[in-house]
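Example record used in the benchmark description.
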Amino acid sequence: MILNLTPVSRLRYRIGLPKPGKWREVVNSDAAVYGGSNVGNMGGVVATEHKCHGKPYSAEFTLPPLGIIAFRPEKELAPPKP
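Model output (structure tokens):
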């Protein structure tokens, strides 16, 4: 979960993550369905090998104003069985 308790959107805000790959946005309190301005991450972000906040991976997030967003890592697909 990431909280931006300021009235200003934060663009390209880098946050450290424990795993690489796609992280899906599962909650966005600024979504239009909740009456917000719909500032968000277009459904998710991708974490790459870029150390930040003591974590080996990170991604750039768009933080909506006065908002809460939550993410979860996407499940990796298992390789096909022979």
